[in-house]
């Protein structure tokens, strides 16, 4: 095909943060194809230097509004590991439900508000509020449920106050947990309805595959989110303190965020990576949603990350019910966090909505943070987005310019990148 | 009456304040009936530069961002700063107290100098700001209250008394009594003392009241065992850009 196609999408919309797509196709040849990250750097690790142990999670929570719970909990776990503080079973269980709440909130927000418009040929969810009222109300209901869970367990939806080093400042009551359990039970059909809604239009997700490596936490007893070892679909597991062997970050001129690679050119983290590695541990209802989407490990289509997020949202509802039942068996004790400050250095990892998150801190004997490193899921995905975009554009280079542009945008959106996160935290 | 045209923009921030707008859930659908949202990059592909009210989240952290903010100011009849990063400079200003070349080098190594930065600042340090919605993150109810006031042509009622007043109303035990320290005595209320109510302390995210008794706050913090370094850190968590913290 002759002629020139120049695609320059600056500040891609319906994304968290600022990223550009630049593609040039000349006489049927792809001359440029770039995923650029242009977010203003914020230098979080520098902010942490000299800060007290009980301020660190408060600051790192502000890395990202959407995944503030994940950053808070990972931060607390790293501080606890550095000071050899163990938390109670009750603390671990409530934290797990809180993590589920954020996972649901973030996945529903992404699929419902940011991806569904592409499937219904709308520029955003705003016009859908009048043309597809019932579907929008379904999404709003699920999103509100997830936010109310966070409010109840964390104190508020974004930047939670209750989780602190050693435990929680305040606990939910038995009555509150029973009411939440009932709401979750009643809302599972809504989760399944969202799956049906997306399934009806799933044909719009491009049939695109590129073999890559998937990295996620894994655990022998559960679908790993709060705890586990690092695992790869290429084989192998690693304890979390060896994370640098996996992440290998490097700078690229097109981006204010670092890129990462393990053994191949790139790897992917997030819902699809978790599903590819931990499929067997999904709850029964989540598994049937996965089957409806024909999602089986190993799935190499990055667009299926959207559907993996729906599967996980249903899993989070199911597993929260299981955890609440577990908690209710023993009643809620009014435990107070107990902390003995000491010097130390440790790493913690957790699966947050967009993938595996690492925080590593060093504290001096006064409990002041002297060194910090955070590696964000989206950082780990940037290189894979770039490689996918190169392969995808090669496959569709003869299509119309608008179609190439939309498909490239949909690819980036499928990763649900959290760009403000990814530019802020790296080495100190 | 023509519906006011509203736009959302962001600079260096976690975008958590715009998320609070999305988190209005069903109430957001009602807001959408009263205004036309013409630009909201995080949620919409549609975009227009023709708007009446601009809500802007985030701090200005690069000289190259100033032109975009000035453009927004030029287009908007009313500019509202959204959240601590925009109203105070917020936590982005923590880095202002360190050597910025050193900070860049540590984060980005030898590539440091291709990453532009300058001392972080609130929006009002670059352009005039008409209204401020404080908080990290903003409170959803306060956002709706401000929108209603703007639609009615009224000045939103933002408190100018300290968080301690709301803590008393909430019936909280003073955190100083519990052996902790707090920024509540000098911090602007309006949050219903939500952090203390949830068992934490006030971190100062809504900024200082107009006439804070900063000397007395320093004395109290020192009395409760904080070193000069700790006291400065307390003030510089959110309000580092203000003169009091310098």
Q: In a nutshell, what does this entry contain?
A:
The complex is a heterodimer of chains A (428) and B (246). Chain A has 14 helices and 14 strands.
Describe the fold and architecture:
The complex is a heterodimer of chains A (428) and B (246). Chain A contains 14 helices and 14 strands. Chain A has 428 residues and is α+β, with helices and mostly antiparallel strands. Chain A has a single domain, classed as Cytochrome-c3 Hydrogenase, chain B (Orthogonal Bundle). In chain A, a hairpin with a 2-residue loop joins strand 2 and strand 3. Chain A is globular and about 70 Å long. In chain B, helix 3 links the parallel strand 3 and strand 4 (78-82). With 246 residues, chain B is α/β, with parallel strands linked by helices. Chain B folds into 2 domains: 5-151, NADH:ubiquinone oxidoreductase-like, 20kDa subunit (Rossmann fold, 3-Layer(aba) Sandwich), CATH 3.40.50; 163-245, no CATH class. A 5-stranded parallel β-sheet of chain B has the order 2-1-3-4-5. At the A-B interface, helix 1, helix 4, helix 5 and helix 6 of A face helix 1, helix 2, helix 5 and helix 10 of B.
Could you name the key traits of this structure?
heterodimer; A: Cytochrome-c3 Hydrogenase, chain B; four-stranded mixed beta sheet; 14 strands; 16% strand; globular; B: 246 residues; alpha/beta; Rossmann fold; 2 domains; five-stranded parallel beta sheet
What's the SSE blueprint?
The complex is a heterodimer of chains A (428) and B (246).
Chain A: E1 4-9, E2 19-26, E3 29-37, H1 44-48, H2 56-61, H3 68-82, H4 89-119, H5 125-131, H6 133-154, E4 163-164, E5 167-168, H7 174-201, E6 213-218, E7 229-232, E8 237-238, H8 244-247, E9 249-250, E10 259-260, E11 267-268, H9 271-278, H10 284-292, H11 305-330, E12 344-352, E13 355-363, E14 369-375, H12 377-396, H13 401-414, H14 419-422
Parallel strand pairs in A: 6-11
Antiparallel strand pairs in A: 1-2, 2-3, 4-5, 6-7, 7-8, 9-10, 12-13, 13-14
Chain B: E1 5-10, H1 16-22, H2 26-34, E2 36-40, E3 53-57, H3 66-75, E4 78-82, H4 84-87, H5 100-108, E5 131-133, H6 140-151, H7 163-170, H8 194-197, H9 214-223, H10 228-235
Parallel strand pairs in B: 1-2, 1-3, 3-4, 4-5
């Amino acid at each position: 095909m002759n002629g020139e196609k120049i695609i320059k999408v600056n500040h891609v919309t319906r994304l968290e943060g600022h990223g550009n797509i630049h593609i040039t196709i000349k006489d049927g040849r792809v001359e440029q194809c770039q995923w650029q990250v242009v977010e203003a750097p914020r230098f979080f690790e520098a902010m942490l230097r000299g800060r007290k142990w009980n301020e660190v999670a408060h600051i790192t929570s502000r890395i990202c509004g959407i995944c503030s719970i994940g950053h808070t909990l990972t931060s607390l776990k790293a501080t606890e590991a550095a000071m050899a503080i163990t938390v109670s079973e009750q603390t671990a269980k409530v934290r797990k439900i809180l993590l589920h709440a954020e996972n649901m909130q973030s996945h529903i927000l992404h699929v419902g508000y940011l991806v569904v418009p592409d499937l219904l040929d709308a520029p955003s969810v705003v016009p859908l509020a009048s043309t597809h009222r019932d579907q929008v109300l379904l999404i709003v209901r699920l999103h509100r449920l997830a936010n109310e869970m966070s409010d109840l367990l964390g104190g508020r939806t974004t930047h939670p106050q209750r989780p602190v080093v050693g435990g929680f400042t305040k606990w939910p009551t038995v009555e509150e947990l029973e009411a939440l359990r009932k709401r979750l039970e009643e809302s599972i059909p809504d989760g399944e309805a969202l799956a049906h809604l997306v399934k009806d239009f799933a044909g719009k997700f491009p049939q695109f595959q590129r073999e890559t490596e998937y990295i996620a936490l894994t655990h022998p007893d559960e679908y790993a989110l709060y705890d586990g070892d690092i695992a790869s679909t290429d084989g192998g597991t690693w304890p979390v303190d060896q994370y640098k062997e996996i992440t290998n970050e490097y700078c690229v001129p097109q981006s204010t965020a670092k890129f990462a690679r393990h053994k191949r050119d790139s790897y992917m983290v997030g819902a699809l990576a978790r599903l590819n590695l931990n499929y067997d541990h999904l709850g029964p209802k989540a598994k049937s949603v996965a089957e409806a989407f024909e999602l089986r490990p190993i799935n190499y289509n990055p667009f299926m990350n959207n559907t993996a997020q729906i599967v996980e949202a249903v899993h989070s509802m199911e597993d929260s019910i299981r955890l609440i039942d577990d908690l209710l068996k023993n009643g809620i004790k009014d435990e107070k966090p107990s902390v003995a400050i000491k010097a130390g250095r440790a790493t913690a990892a957790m699966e947050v909505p967009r993938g595996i998150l690492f925080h590593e801190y060093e504290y001096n004997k006064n409990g002041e943070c002297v060194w910090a490193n955070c590696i964000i899921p989206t950082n780990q995905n940037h290189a894979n987005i770039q490689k996918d975009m190169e392969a995808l554009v090669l496959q569709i280079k003869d299509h119309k310019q608008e179609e190439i542009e939309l498909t490239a945008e949909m690819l980036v959106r499928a990763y649900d990148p959290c760009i403000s996160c990814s530019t802020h935290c790296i080495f100190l | 009456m023509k519906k006011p045209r509203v736009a959302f923009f962001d600079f260096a921030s976690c975008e958590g304040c715009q998320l609070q707008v999305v988190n209005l859930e069903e109430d957001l659908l009602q807001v959408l009936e009263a205004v036309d949202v013409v630009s909201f990059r995080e949620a919409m592909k549609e975009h227009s530069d023709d708007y009446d009210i601009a809500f802007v989240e985030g701090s200005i952290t690069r000289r190259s961002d100033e032109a975009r903010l000035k453009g927004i100011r030029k287009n908007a009849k009313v500019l509202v700063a959204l959240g601590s990063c925009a109203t105070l400079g917020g936590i982005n200003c923590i880095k202002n107290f360190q050597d910025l070349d050193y900070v860049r080098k540590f984060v980005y190594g030898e590539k440091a100098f291709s990453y532009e930065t300058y001392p972080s600042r609130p929006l009002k340090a670059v352009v005039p700001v008409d209204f401020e919605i404080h908080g990290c993150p903003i409170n959803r109810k306060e956002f709706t209250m401000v929108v209603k006031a703007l639609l009615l042509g009224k000045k939103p009622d933002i408190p100018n008394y300290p968080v301690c007043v709301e803590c008393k109303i909430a019936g909280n035990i003073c955190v100083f009594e519990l052996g902790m320290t707090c920024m509540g005595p000098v911090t602007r209320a309006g949050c219903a003392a939500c952090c203390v109510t949830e068992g934490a302390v006030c971190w100062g995210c809504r900024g200082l009241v107009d006439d804070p008794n900063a000397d007395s706050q320093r004395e109290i913090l020192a009395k409760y065992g904080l070193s000069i370094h700790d006291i400065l850190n307390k003030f510089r968590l959110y309000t580092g850009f203000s003169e009091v913290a310098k």
